[in-house]
Amino acid sequence: MNLQDIATIFSYNTWANERILTTALRVSPAQLIAPVQPDPGQGSLRGILVHMLNAERSWRCVVEGREMAPDIFEHEFRDVGAIQTLWQAEHAGWSHFLQNLDEARLNGSNNPKGERPLWQTLYHVAIHAAQHRSEAAAILTGYGCSPGEIDFYVFLSEQGR
Fold first, then answer.
1. Alpha helix positions (H), 42-109
2. Using alpha carbons only, what angle is made at residue 66 by residues 65 and 69, rounded to the nearest 5 degrees?
3. How far apart are CA 36 and CA 44, in angstroms?
4. Which of 44, 56, 67, 138 is most buried, with most CB under 10 Å away?
5. Conformational region of residue 100, where left means phi above 0, alpha means psi within -120 to 50, and beta covers everything else
6. Domains of the chain
């Protein structure tokens, strides 16, 4: 894996997350917290969004070699705007991390045990988000607020790549 590829993957991740969050701003407070059926595992749209944010925060702590950030809980967010604000800071944190990453570290061990290269962990972060974004997109579409296409190729086209 090279730095340009991982930067592109994370740019897509940010773009797609923002598309979901912007669309989620259109749902009512009741829809945001309503139990969804079938439940994809997080209970509600808010639950999915907070789970995604927790995962990105946690993995960034891991790859930066820092102590884990305390978990955040969905009841701490009264609306999507509050989630979006924290997520913007998280996107900035990932951007800073990636700007300071070099090829040797990207392809080197992710941890002292040498279990896997760092790029595989970074790729996991993006794939994990893609899974939950698709769940959020389905819920939003059910609420009459489709986020539109969130495909990687749509991102590339919009970016002129």
1. 45-64, 80-99, 103-107
2. 135
3. 5
4. 56
5. alpha
6. 3-158 (1.20.120.450)
